[in-house]
Amino acid sequence: MENWRLGGFGLYLHWPFCQSKCPYCDFNSHVATQIDQRRWERAYLAEIDRLAAETPGRVLQTVFLGGGTPSLMQPDLVAAILDRIRARWPMVNDPEVTLEANPGSAEAGRFRAYAQAGVTRLSMGLQALNDDDLRRLGRLHTAAEARAAFAIAHEAFARVSFDLIYARQDQTPQDWRTELRAALDMAVDHLSLYQLTVEDGTAFADRLARGGLRGLPDEDRAAEMFEITQDITAAAGLPSYEVSNHARPGAESRHNLIYWRSGDWVGIGPGAHGRLTLGGRRWATEATRAPGAWLAAVETGAPAETRSPLTPAEQADEYLLMSLRLTEGTDLDRHAALGGRIDPGRLDSLCHLGMITREGACIRTTPRGRMVLNAILRDLAGA
Amino acid sequence: MTQLDRIRNFSIVAHIDHGKSTLADRLIQMTGTVAERDMKAQLLDSMDIERERGITIKANTVRIEYPARDGHTYILNLIDTPGHVDFAYEVSRSMRAVEGSLLVVDASQGVEAQTLANVYQAIDAGHDIVPVLNKIDLPAADPERVKENIEDVIGIDASDAIPISAKTGLGIPEVLEAIVTRLPAPKGERDAPLKAMLVDSWYDSYLGVVVMIRVVDGVIRKGDRIKMMQTGAVYGIDKLAVLKPQMVDIAELGPGEIGIFTASIKQVRDTRVGDTVTHERKPCAAPLPGFKSAQPVVFCGLFPVDAADFEALRDAIEKLALNDASFSYEMETSAALGFGFRMGFLGLLHLEVVRDRLEREYDLELITTAPSVVFKLHMKGGEVRDLHNPADMPDLTLIDHIEEPRIKATIMVPDEYLGDILKLCQDRRGIQLNLTYAGNRAMVEYDLPLAEVVFDFYDRLKSVTKGYASFDYQLSEYREDHLVKMSILVNDEPVDALAIMVHRDRAESRGRVMVEKLKELIPRHMFKIPIQAAIGGRVIARETISAMRKDVTAKCYGGDATRKRKLLEKQKEGKKKMRQFGKVEIPQTAFINALKMDG
Ligand SMILES: Nc1nc2c(ncn2[C@@H]2O[C@H](COP(=O)(O)OP(=O)(O)O)[C@@H](O)[C@H]2O)c(=O)[nH]1
Ligand SMILES: C[S@@+](CC[C@H](N)C(=O)[O-])C[C@H]1O[C@@H](n2cnc3c(N)ncnc32)[C@H](O)[C@@H]1O
Ligand code: SF4
Ligand SMILES: [Mg+2]
């Protein structure tokens, strides 16, 4: 069996526009005044056709419309895209079709129509549940709007998840405990809880470099907040299944699991990455990042993506670094089959230090190990 | 062949930056020795490192033809000598090949420490000296005050000092004329058996070993069979030339002349600077008084950052050794750093220069360990051993006492910084020998342990005096003191490459600074790491690096896999620059930075 089948097959489609750029965000997202959604539709459909022709007969398990802010897409654009996907690939009986949404009131008005178009799951960027912090994060919505949008989503979709960013400026562990409990009270079955990361090239990085953005937690404080997060979500029945993702068992994001389990996925849209096993080789695909350039390339039939083959060692590294993020861990047999090698001495010493546990061919991080996963990977990868 | 009284051989002595190289350029230029289009600044400094750092490392020579005001044309041989104390030995032997010196002093600065050290060497070599006041184009120049300064501090007559600007060319004709009229002609017997001094030798990739000589008596010609009196080796002269400064073949060299020859000599190590060159058939009766060869005084380990580069490092060192016989090397294995070399140098600058050349010319990345001096271990049995590496320290019970090299340091400094200098020297176990003033500059002499000077003394000196102090030293003697080996333990294991020799009374404070530094320099690991300084089995300082608590990427989806993987690959590359010691990774830079004594 080809290795990717152990991870599954999905499709990611990137919508690169937002209403404003958040100061912490390093995603491929842009603010544009005029967006000709019909032009974008033609381009997306053309790319769907092209990629489907390369992967005939593959059964699609998930679709993810991400961004940017895909909830700025008109519902008929979403419908056209999903119709075309269904026409081009056979799909499993209960495909997971996720759309990322911002919780503004205008967006909420479109939720029902998205559901009708075939979206089954909404992932909402709430980020914080109080207005002061929302403002400091540069968000356009208020906490009240977010709750209202969430209620509408809850009605319209069988599955709703939302994102929060914590370890914010001046946030105490006690603040976070309270806020996290409030989030869990909102009757979700999936939460993405990210520690704020100051990414290079963002407005936050700038502020930090100039001595601003004070009151961020130090390493010990950040560790404490991470532990609080693990404890509270587990107690509420939504344990982490990945470093920053928590779900009631069975409610995990199936699409994201494809990434962490090193499956194949088609990537469509500006800056989208994909992984495709074709003709016995595994390819990393990456589409042109700038929206205008991507659109022009697709329209003129010029190449809109680059493809690079992944060596066995690279595939093994990717599998290791993605799968160790998961609570279910890494299958060393699969890693070895990809061509990976792990230094047994290093593994033993990580076990000995209480960072990793091993059961048969499966290794997993311990709670302490997960918090220093990058260091573990530096030890184990590419041996 | 030139008549003796039409030859003048001289060198230029100066403190660094007082204008020695610029003056040499002007002399070469004004006499048309080098065509205008071939002229470049600092002509005699040919190594990249010399040009970049503005220092002269290797002696160099140029033959200048000068039509003097008396109507005769003179041959002027200039030997350009290094100014830095590390190469004092090179200076002293070059000086023996010439009869006079131009003493260049910056007219806006006055006499500095290296001026003194170098001029005393010239005086020792019996030179006549012509003082030259340079940089009089500068508004701050004060020639009259500097004349007095020269007379006060050096004690030579400066009333006839020549004011010049090497930059603008002002006064250069007067300098040329003074070389002819105020410096003596060489002496020698044309008809006597050949007697020539081997002044220097170097490796040229086209010609092989090139030997510079100064003929004292007799005549040397191409094709001659010559003999090196010390080594006994016999060679045939393949090429005879003078340097202008490029090589120009010449039929013969007679008394008083300076030139080069090649003779199919394989490596520089086959020649002894100071050796006497004579004819095989008709040798001279007695050789010239020889020199002791230069002994390395500072030792350190050099290890490749990437252990796989060891063979490349060996190759590079062997190639460099072809051209520089003054450093020593032998293989060393360190538990912490793997395979490398224990290298001996004439001083710290020499160390830096050789390391720089290895890194640059051979594209290597190197780890340098703590510079150490040579300690003399007087064993209980009466035997005396040289200790080049603290890691090799034998069991204490076998040692009767330990001696260390001491130096006499001369420091000149504006008096407002004197207090800082005295404190620095005191902190480094110095004993004040002398303190005098010349104007508002103080001159202090200190007896200091060389070991306290080889590491970051000069940097500290410059920083506490904002660069206004000048410094020079000479080795004085070996003296007993209470010296101990201090080990550094990382995660309870001694790291050999971090061991140093220290004075017992300073061990605690050195140990404390080192463990504190290491705490900063070694990154957090997944476990906590104790760092200790110990003498024998006794811990004198300790710190703990707490365990890493959190290092995990919050967001990692499909689009991040490539970036994360590449980052991991880069970090793997970076890890090669760490040395695995037990379970602990120590960054390469830690080995040297841990020693810095500033706060
Ligand atoms: N203003 C001025 N600068 C000079 C003069 N002679 C040399 N310099 C400058 O002083 C610096 C040191 O000169 P250099 O010849 O390299 O000194 P060395 O270290 O003694 O060889 C250089 O920047 C020269 O350009 C001079 O007569 N006047
Ligand atoms: C594709 S992004 C944004 C989706 C949507 N546009 C939004 O902002 O709500 C997915 C999530 O990543 C998280 N995120 C983005 N930048 C982050 C950062 N610098 N640090 C931590 N989390 C971040 C946010 O929680 C965000 O909802
Ligand atoms: S965080 Fe979301 S809304 Fe904000 S700029 Fe990024 S993609 Fe757009
Ligand atoms: Mg110079």
Description:
The complex is a heterodimer of chains A (383) and B (599). In chain A, the strands form four sheets. A nine-stranded mixed beta sheet of chain A has the order 9-10-8-7-6-5-4-1-11, sandwiched between helices. Chain A has a three-stranded antiparallel beta sheet with strand order 12-13-14, with no helix packed on it. In chain A, strands 15-17-16 form a three-stranded antiparallel beta sheet. Chain A has two domains: 3-259, Aldolase class I (TIM Barrel, Alpha-Beta Barrel); 311-383, Arc Repressor Mutant, subunit A (Orthogonal Bundle), CATH 1.10.10. In chain A, helix 2 (75-88) links the parallel strand 4 and strand 5. Chain A has helices at 37-54, 75-88, 105-108, 111-117, 131-136, 143-156, 173-184, 203-209, 219-235, 254-260, 291-300, 312-323, 332-337, 344-352, 367-371, 373-380, and strands at residues 9-15, 17-18, 30-31, 60-67, 91-101, 121-127, 159-166, 190-195, 240-242, 245-247, 264-268, 273-278, 281-287, 305-309, 330-331, 356-359, 362-365. Chain A is α/β, with parallel strands linked by helices. Chain B has 599 residues and is of the alpha+beta class. Helix content of chain B is 24%, strand content 34%. Chain B contains 14 helices and 34 strands. An eight-stranded antiparallel beta sheet of chain B has the order 11-10-16-7-8-15-12-13, with no helix packed on it. Chain B has a six-stranded mixed beta sheet with strand order 2-3-1-4-5-6, with helices on both faces. Chain B is globular, with a radius of gyration of 27 Å. The model of chain B has no long low-confidence stretch (mean pLDDT 89). Classes of the chains: A alpha/beta (383), B alpha+beta (599). The complex binds guanosine-5'-diphosphate, S-adenosylmethionine (SAM), iron/sulfur cluster and magnesium ion. Magnesium ion is lined by residues 20-21, 45, 54, 56 of chain B.
